Amino acid sequence: MPVLCLRNMYKTPCSRLTGLLGTTVNKQLSARAAKCPLSSRGLTQLRSTHPKEWLTFQQLRFLKRQYVVRHSGALGQRPRPKQEPVSAALEDRGDVMLQQVQQIPTIKSVAGLAVPAPGAKPPPDLSNEPEADRLARIEARQWKELKVDYSELPDVYARLSKINLTALVVTTAAAGFAMAPVPFDPYLFLYASLGTGLCSCTANSINQYFEVPFDSNMNRTKNRPLVRGQISPLHAVSFALACGIPGVALLTLAVNPLTGLLGALNIVLYTSCYTPLKRLSITNTWMGAVVGAIPPIMGWTAATGSLDAGALLMGGLLYSWQFPHFNALSWNLREDYSRGGYRMMSVTHPDMCRRVALRHSLGLIGLSSLAPVVGITTWTFPLVSLPINLYISYLAFRFYRNADRQNARKLFFCSLWHLPMLLLLALTCKTRRTEPEALPASSSLSVLS
C-alpha cells in the first residue's frame, strides 16, 4: 500500500517539477496528502522502516524528463520518447555497413594471375600480337609532328587570309585610287593594291590565330585551318609576318610613307583593338567600321600623297555601308556569336542593331549628296545613286520594323551588290580634271628669243 501511494503520488506531469526542487515536492506532497490514507508521520516511519522503497534525492533530478521509481533495488524507467538525430543514425548505419564490409572474406590472389574487377572486360591477350600491330599501337601513343600537305597550302592560305574579305578590301582601295583627281599611274596602282592586299592577309591571319578557342564553338568558323589543325599556330604567324612586313615596306617605299603608315595602323587596329573588343563590348562594330573605312583612304593617299576631303568622303561611304551589311549578317548568326562568347550588337542590343542599320542606310543618301560638293563627282551622282540608296534604306526600314531572318537576309544580299554599284556610279560620274594645253612651238621659240 505505501508503494502504491508513492507511485500514484509521483505519476504527475513532469512540467510541474520545473521550479525549485523543495517547493515543488512539498506542493505535490500537500496535494496528495488529502487523497493518501497515510499521514505525514506515517510517511516518516515508512522512510525509516523501508528505505529501499523510497525515492532517492538523486532520482528526483531525473523527474524533469522521465518518471523513475525505485522498487526492490531496481530502477523502473519510462523515458520520454526523443527523436534520434539523423547524424547518429547515419553513423550507426555506417558502423553496420563497415562491419558487413569487414566480414567479406578477402580474395587471395594467385601469383601470376590477375583477378579482374566485377563487370570489367578482360584485358586483351598481347602475347600473340603481330609485330605490325604492336608497332602501330606504340606509335599511336607517341607525339607526332604535324604533317602539312603542301598541295593544300594554297587553299589553306586563302582561307587563313579570308580571301573574299581581302578581295573586298583591295577593291575599295582601288576605288579610292581611281577616284583621286590625279592622272592614273598603273605601276603605282599595282604597288598600292598589292601592299594593301598583303596587309589585309596579315590582319586576318593574326585575327584567326587569336580566336582559335572561340571559333571552334561556332558553326560558321569551325572549319578554319587553325581550328581543324591543318597548320600549326607558328605556321600561321609566320605566314602573317611574311605578308605584313613586305606589305608595309612596299607601301612605304614604293608608294609613299603616309600610305604605309595607314597600312600598319590598319593592322594594329584590326588585331589589337577590334579582335579583343569582340568579347568585351559592342563598340567592336564601330571599331570594325573604322578599319573597313581605311582602305579607300589608303587608295586615295597612294595616288595623291595627301589626305584630302575626298579621301574622308570615300572612307565615310565605306563606314556607313558596313552597318547595314554587318548588322544584317550578324542577325542570323546570333546563336553562333553567343556560343563563341562575342558581344555583338545583334546579341546584346537587338533594338540598337536595327536602329543603327536604318540610320546608316539613310546616311548613304546624305554622303552621296556631298560628293559633288567636295568636288570628286558631278551632280549627276546623287541622282543616279538615289534609287539604290533608297532601296537599301527601304530594306533597312523593313528590317527595323520586322527583324526576322528573311528581312535580314534580304538586306544582307542587297548590301553585297549595293557597294560595287555605288562605287561604279561614283567612278562614272567622276569630275574630269582639265589639263593645261601645251604652248605652240613657235610661241615658245619667240619667248626664248
From TrEMBL:
<keyword id="KW-0472">Membrane</keyword>
<dbReference type="InterPro" id="IPR006369">
    <property type="entry name" value="Protohaem_IX_farnesylTrfase"/>
</dbReference>
<keyword id="KW-1133">Transmembrane helix</keyword>
<dbReference type="GO" id="GO:0006784">
    <property type="term" value="P:heme A biosynthetic process"/>
</dbReference>
<feature type="transmembrane region" description="Helical">
    <location>
        <begin position="258"/>
        <end position="277"/>
    </location>
</feature>
<keyword id="KW-0350">Heme biosynthesis</keyword>
<dbReference type="GO" id="GO:0017004">
    <property type="term" value="P:cytochrome complex assembly"/>
</dbReference>
<dbReference type="GO" id="GO:0031966">
    <property type="term" value="C:mitochondrial membrane"/>
</dbReference>
<keyword id="KW-0809">Transit peptide</keyword>
<dbReference type="InterPro" id="IPR044878">
    <property type="entry name" value="UbiA_sf"/>
</dbReference>
<protein>
    <recommendedName>
        <fullName>Protoheme IX farnesyltransferase, mitochondrial</fullName>
        <ecNumber>2.5.1.141</ecNumber>
    </recommendedName>
</protein>
<dbReference type="Pfam" id="PF01040">
    <property type="entry name" value="UbiA"/>
</dbReference>
<dbReference type="GO" id="GO:0008495">
    <property type="term" value="F:protoheme IX farnesyltransferase activity"/>
</dbReference>
<keyword id="KW-0808">Transferase</keyword>
<comment type="similarity">
    <text>Belongs to the UbiA prenyltransferase family.</text>
</comment>
<feature type="transmembrane region" description="Helical">
    <location>
        <begin position="163"/>
        <end position="182"/>
    </location>
</feature>
<dbReference type="InterPro" id="IPR000537">
    <property type="entry name" value="UbiA_prenyltransferase"/>
</dbReference>
<feature type="transmembrane region" description="Helical">
    <location>
        <begin position="362"/>
        <end position="388"/>
    </location>
</feature>
<keyword id="KW-0812">Transmembrane</keyword>
<dbReference type="InterPro" id="IPR030470">
    <property type="entry name" value="UbiA_prenylTrfase_CS"/>
</dbReference>
<keyword id="KW-0496">Mitochondrion</keyword>
